[in-house]
């Protein structure tokens, strides 16, 4: 049985105060909080078996290697990858995307086409622009509509034999829209293109099955799903990972090195040059254990209740506008108060202990579409409560009165 008060006891940070008020943490889409179970794993690593991996014969090194590789298997199981070597540890979503973009530099040719969506985070726009500059490929964009959804009819028109790659996020970080990735993937493949799905915002709420999706690449960051910062994953189909060249050169990723020629290590090590974030990888596995123990169905259902409640209460406030769809989305509300800059609202909320994100959320094209400088984004997690939403609503009302 899901009991939010029991869940909250797992998160030490939730009992602290900010500016003399109990912390209300509604910036979960930026970074989630960390349960004691994951903190314990981090402390255990540095207290008991901190050592470099894959290279020592000594016991500590072997222990650390075993735990790190067990974490890889946990990630494989969670995402239902066929092989554990299809899971590459990275420093996060941004690193994963750059790894793939760099790999495609040697595959794309002049006038090949890449399709991205209008709902992307900057980390899913800029690497592709850089790739186009390097290769002469052309970037095309699936437009969005007022509801913050992708215009799928236009996607059909953009696809052609020239399309080599499609990149789309599973869930928009700025609006929370859940994109129809099943259809997007199927259509990309019908056109003969590869597809990467950015799951950074989906994975805290949805458990993706990469084999059922038949996606070529899927990427995520641990820090948005109860894990630490500085670690994430790239899932790639074996055939694609074998095809792509390594991203970085260094230790760990080689089979043999001479000054004449170097041969690369097998997957996954080919893409894991240098000493990785060992503790982070192990803690990522523990975070997945934690979230799976709570259960993704339970999480999604509870967060949806929070979303519905907050949407209803916030819309009662005069002059408050919510951007994007109210239907098919995760627990994210992006809003503005008429005539008031989002930054000013965020500053007042902070004084009341409420953490929200303000600004363009690294998704400037979406803000340009709505012709706004940014929004206030409140994003809820399964450890938030209706009482906290009540605090948000009364604080927004206060901000509205003070700033109007
Ligand atoms: N894509 C999306 C949709 C995101 O929300 C984020 C993080 N805000 C990123 C990519 C980048 O993730 P990271 O900073 O962990 O690399």
From TrEMBL:
Its EC number is 2.8.1.7. Keywords: Pyridoxal phosphate, Transferase. The keyword Nuclease does not apply. GO terms for biological process: cysteine metabolic process. It catalyses: (sulfur carrier)-H + L-cysteine = (sulfur carrier)-SH + L-alanine. It comes from the Bacteria. Catalyzes the removal of elemental sulfur and selenium atoms from L-cysteine, L-cystine, L-selenocysteine, and L-selenocystine to produce L-alanine. This is Cysteine desulfurase. It comes from Yeosuana aromativorans.
